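Technical appendix A lists one of the benchmark inputs used to test multi-chain prediction within the project. The record comprises two sequence entries:
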Amino acid sequence: MRAYLTVFRMRMHMELQYRGAMIGGILCQMFFGIVLTALYRALYAGHPQAIPIEHVVTYVWLQQACFRMLVSSDPDLLDKIRSGNISYDMCRPVNMYWFYYMRIMAQKLMGSIMRGVPMIVVAALLPKGWGIAWPHSFAGFCAACFSLVPGLLCMCALENITMGFTMRTLDPRGIQSMLNLLMVTFSGNLLPLTLFPDSWQKVITFLPYAQLLDAPIRLYTGEYAVSEALRIIPVQLGWCFALTFLGMWLWKSNKKRMIVQGG
Amino acid sequence: MSYIEVNGLKKTFTVRKKREKGKLLREKQTVEALKGVSFSVEKGDLVGYIGPNGAGKSTTVKILSGILTPDGGEAKVGGKVPWLDRKEYVKHIGVVFGQRSQLWWDVPIIDSFSLLKDIYRIPKTDYDNRLKELSDALQLEELMRTPLRLLSLGQRMRAELCGSLLHRPELLFLDEPTIGLDAVSKLALRDFLKWENREYGTTVMLTTHDMEDIAALCSRVMVLGHGKKLFDGKLPDLLEKFDTVRTVSVRYDSDVLRIDMPENVKCEHKGEEYILTYSPAEFPTSRLLKALQDAGNIREMTLQPENIDHLIASMYKEMDL
C-alpha cells in the first residue's frame, strides 16, 4: 500500500514543477471560457432556453477549470510504453494496474487543482451572468464535491484503458483522439449536456462520460436536487467498477501478449 | 537442483511484413527468438551471456525476470517460475537494462530510491545502511539531490545500479550495463560488481558485447546464437578453440629481399615492416624465429597482442552467426 501512496505523492510533487504549462493551460482555458460564455449569451439573447443562463455559464467555467482532468495523458507513461521502459515497472512487486492508476490520479488531480483553483477565483470575480455563480445550496455543494470523487475515479479508469490500448497499438494518438472526441462531446465540455435535447439526455446522462463532471456540476447548480444524489452516485459507482474491471482485464490480457521491442 | 534451471525455453515473435503489391493481407512471419535453450546456474555464480545482436540474450533475460511469457519450455529460479507468480518472484531479483531507465527523469534520484524502498518494503534502518553502502561504493553521495536528467551517462548507470540493488536481490540481471560508458566508469562498475558478488554472494547474469566485461568478471560464459546455446564453459576454453593464429611484425636493419617461409605462414610486406601470421600448431614458433633471423639483422620485433573482439568475431563467423 505504501508504494502506491508514495508514487501518488511523487507524481503530485513532480506536477508542481511544470508551472509554465500551468500558466499556459490557465490562459488557454480562460480564453475558451470567455468565448463560450459570450457565445451562449448571444444565443440566449436571440432565443432564451429553459435553463437559466447563469447555470450554463457556471457549467462552462467549471468544465473549463477541470479540463485537465478530462483530456490529458501522462506523457511519461505513454513514453514508457512506447520506448519499452515499462519493462522496469514490470519487474516490481506491485500490481501494475493500480501502480499506474495512482500515477494517473496524481497527475489529473494536481494538474486540475493547479489550473482550476486560480481559474475559479478569477471566474468568480467576473460580473454576474459572465462568471461562476454561487452553488445553489450548501447541501448541493457538498453533494457535488462528494460525487466528484467517483467522477475522478471513473476518469482514471478511463485513462488506464487508454494506456491498455496503447500497449497494443504502441502509439496512443489513434485511440486518444477517438476517445477524446467522445470525452469532450459526452462529458459536456464542448456543449453543456443540459443544452442537449431532452430525448438525448435520457441516454447520455447514463454514459460513463456524464459521470465525470456533468453530474457534479448539475448538483452544484441545483439542476439536480440534492436528493437525486442518491440516484446519481450509484450510477457513478457502477461505472467506476465497470471501467476499472474492464481496464484490469485489458492489462491482464496484455501481459500475456507482451513484447518488449529492442534491446 | 541448481538455483536457476532452464529447460528447452522457447519464444516466438510474430512480425507482420509490409503488404506486398497485389495482395490483400499482410503476410505474417514468425521469428524464433529462442529455439529451446537450456542451462543451469548455481547460486553465487557470475555468468556471462554473449552472442551477436538478435541472438536472444535479452529475450532470455526478460523471460527470467518475469516480463515475458515463453511459448514453450520451463524455467525455475530458486524453485519459482518467473512468469507465473510475477509479483512474488520479482521481490528477490534485481534488473538493470543498460538502455533503459528505472529512475524518474524529473526528480532527484534520492526520491526515486525512496519510492523503491516503499515498493520493496525495505525497513527504514536496513534501507539507510544499504543506501550508505551503495552510495559509497558507487560514489553517488554528491548526486543524490540531482534530478536524473542532469546526470551524465556514467553517473546515471551508477545510480541505476544502486536502484536495482537497494532491496538486496539474490539474483541480478544485467543487460548490457556498460554500454556507452568510458573506461574509468567501466572499471569502477566491474569492481563494484565483483565486490557485490563476493560480499553478498549475489548471483549475477550479465549480457554484454564488451568482451572485457566477461574477461574481468565472469567465471563462466554462455554463447547464444540464432536462439540456440552454442557454448557453455570457461572463457579461456572458449578462446582456446578459436585463438589459433599469432601475428608477428618485424623490421630489419637493411632491406631484406625475401624471407623464406612455408606456405602456411602468411607474409605481408608493408613499408619497412613484415607482418607474419601463423599458427603455432602448424608451424612452431622457434622455427619461425630461426627463419626470420636467417633473413637478416632484426632491428625490432613485436608480437601483436590477441584481440578478444577479433576472436569473438571469428568465432561468430565460424559458428555461422
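Chain B has two domains: 4-241, 245-305. The mean pLDDT of chain B is 87. Comparable benchmark entries are summarised in Table A2.
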